[in-house]
């Protein structure tokens, strides 16, 4: 298991660490789905994954939960980049609009999350998932609760 004290890192530094180190011994939804952190900056994250047959719904296309998870991760991590060390966040609300189906044959889906507002108690963000051709698959908004150690 990694020896990095993640509570000592700012949110931005933590996301950059995940991007560069990709700790294989750190259990996470990102590892489970094969997410990559492509871009990390203050208030913005870009993550991607390659679809696979395991992601199929009963109709044979990518299950909507995969897009929702990609969006929740991108937006939540974008919010996290705005937080100081020792402060976390969790999703209070997630609203997803699905636009078109995605195929399960190894195509790349890319999600971008961008912070709209970062306050003391809550933060909001928006996100979108695009396919390899740049077509919109889904878009979303979120509200995150800021978790301070004194709360």
Automatic annotation (TrEMBL):
Keywords, A to Z, come to: Hydrolase
Q: What PANTHER family does the record point to?
A: 1,4-DIHYDROXY-2-NAPHTHOYL-COA THIOESTERASE 1, BLR5584 PROTEIN
Name of the protein in question: Thioesterase domain-containing protein
Q: Which residues form the Thioesterase domain?
A: 60-137
Q: Where are the transmembrane segments?
A: none
Classification via CDD domains: PaaI_thioesterase
Molecular functions per Gene Ontology: 1,4-dihydroxy-2-naphthoyl-CoA thioesterase activity
Sorted alphabetically, the Gene Ontology cellular component annotations on this record are:
cytosol
Q: InterPro entries, from UniProt?
A: HotDog_dom_sf, PAAI_dom, Thioestr_dom
